[in-house]
Design goal:
By secondary structure, this protein is mainly alpha-helical. The chain has one domain. The protein contains five helices and two strands, in the order αβαααβα. It has a two-stranded antiparallel sheet with strand order 1-2. α2 packs across α5. The longest helix has 18 residues. It starts with 7 loop residues before the first helix and ends in a 5-residue tail after the last helix. Bound molecules: zinc ion. Zinc ion binds next to loops.
């Protein structure tokens, strides 16, 4: 295995890229969330950056968050995928369907992070 990079951080970055491309192109499963009554044109950079910071901090206090994973490499990418799914759901019938290209287990860090993001946006609903 000469030349194989054993740096765990490099391995994790590769894993992250794999998860992102599977999530956007060929997801293993979708996580469903009820639609939220959010004004999408209010989702500016400030709100999105606040979401990334707060959700990531909360995620790091969970069991799933204690293990370094794809989420840690680029939390923003997962928030963006969630927002994209939320936008897509506003123009369609049914629930928000968020793709997951990692796995379909209950202990999935990406699934946990999505749940935290959903809770965060639920808190922004004003009515
Ligand atoms: Zn997973």
């Amino acid at each position: 295995m000469a030349g194989l990079n054993r740096d765990p951080e490099v391995t994790l970055k590769l894993l992250h890229q794999t998860h992102i491309s599977a999530t956007t192109q060929n997801p293993i499963c979708h996580h469903e969330f009820p639609k939220l009554n959010i004004e999408l044109n209010q989702l500016n950079d400030n709100i999105i950056n606040k979401c990334i910071d707060e959700c990531y901090l909360k995620y790091k206090t969970t069991d799933e968050g204690h293990i370094r994973s794809s989420v840690d490499i680029n939390p923003k990418a997962w928030v963006n995928i969630f927002i994209f799914s939320m936008v897509k759901a506003t123009n369609a019938s049914g629930n928000i369907q968020v793709p997951n290209g990692c796995c379909n287990t209950d202990k999935c860090g990406i699934k946990k992070f999505y749940e935290i993001i959903y809770d965060h946006f639920s808190g922004l609903v004003t009515n």
